[in-house]
C-alpha cells in the first residue's frame, strides 16, 4: 500500500483517542491529523508517547469553522468523523447541537469535496434508529429492518440528519478527480476506560454512598466496548480505501456491537462496578407509565416557560424510553462486509473497564481525604 494520511475529528474524545491508538499502527499511514476543539494536557502527552512511524499532528479547531476544515483536509486520504456533542437531557441549546452535529458534518463533507478526500467514515449512533416506544421490543435488529427514530429531541435528530447527509454524499464527484465514498457506523452504548457517560454514572453513585440509582431495570441493551468500536472504524477505513470494496461499502450504515452480554443498563453498571463496593439502590419508584406522563407535563412546563426562562426538566420522555426499552442489535452485516470481529472479548473489556472504575473510586477517596483535612 502506498503512503496515506487520515484526519480524525473528535480525536481528543473517548472514542477518538481509542481510534488514534489503533490507527497509528496501520501500514503505510504517514500522517494522522487529530482534530478537536481542545486537547487536555494528558491527551497531548498520551499522543506524544505513541511509539509509531506515523506523524501525529494535533489540530485544535472547531468543526463549525468551514475555512479551518478546508485547510485541515488538504492532502488527506480518509476522514473519520467522530466529533459531536452528546446531550440527552437537553442541557444545551438545540441550535448549538444542530450547529455542531449537523452543520459541522456538512462543513466537513464540503471540505472533503473541495480537497478531494475520497473516503469519509461517520460515527453515527443507534439513537438514529430509536427506540420510539418502550412498549416496542427490538431484538438483534439488523440494517435491512429500517428502524428510524421519530424523536424531535436534538441529539437523535441531529445524528439522524448528519448520517443522512453523509450517506447521500456517497458517490459525489471530488473537485480534482475521483469519487467520494462514505459510510456510517452505528455503535450501541459505548463503554470502557474514559467513558464520559460511565464517569457520570459512577460519580453519581459515589456521591450516593456507592448506591447506583436504579433507573433502567426494564431495559435490555447490548453495549459495545470502545476498543471494538475503534476497530470497526479501522476496518471501515481499510474497506473504503480498497477500490474493489469501496463501491459496495459506500452509502451503507453498519450496527457495531460485540459479545458483551445483553442486559439492563442497571445490571450492566452494577456488573462493572460491584467489585468497588457499588450496589443497586432499589428504592421504590413511580410506575413507568406515570413517570412518562410526568415527563410529558415537565416538558410542557419547559415549553411554556421557554420565552422567559430556560427550565431543564430532570428527565424527559425520550430518556425514559431509552432507559426502559428492549433495544439490541446484531453486527452480522459489519462482519460480512467489513470482516468485523470484536478484538476484545467481554472478560477483557470488563476487566479493563473495572480497573478504570477502581481508579475513579480511589480518586474520589483521595478527594474526600483532602476535603476532611481542610
Ligand atoms: N459514547 C457513546 O455511548 C456513543 C454511542 C454511540 C455513538 N456515539 C458517537 O460517537 C462519537 C464520539 O463520542 P464519544 O463518546 O467519544 O464522545 P466525546 O464527548 O468523548 O467525544 C466527542 C469529541 O468531539 C469534540 N467536539 C465537540 N464539539 C466539537 C466541535 N465543535 N469542534 C471540534 N470538536 C468538537 C469534543 O471536544 C470531544 O473530544 C459521537 O459522534 C457520538 O455521537 C457515542
TrEMBL record:
Q: How would you describe this protein's topology in the membrane?
A: Single-pass membrane protein
- Gene Ontology CC entries for this record: endoplasmic reticulum membrane; mitochondrial membrane
On the tree of life, the source organism's domain of life is: Eukaryota
Q: Name one GO biological process term.
A: steroid biosynthetic process
InterPro entries on file: 3Beta_OHSteriod_DH/Estase (IPR002225), Lipid_A_modif_metabolic_enz (IPR050177), NAD(P)-bd_dom_sf (IPR036291)
Location(s) in or outside the cell: Endoplasmic reticulum membrane; Mitochondrion membrane
Any one GO molecular function term: oxidoreductase activity, acting on the CH-OH group of donors, NAD or NADP as acceptor
Any matching Pfam family? 3Beta_HSD
Task: Locate the transmembrane regions by residue number.
Answer: 290-309
Quick check: keyword Transcription in the entry? no
Q: Does the keyword section mention Oxidoreductase?
A: yes
The identity of this protein, by name, is 3 beta-hydroxysteroid dehydrogenase/Delta 5-->4-isomerase-like
Q: Which organism is it from?
A: Octodon degus
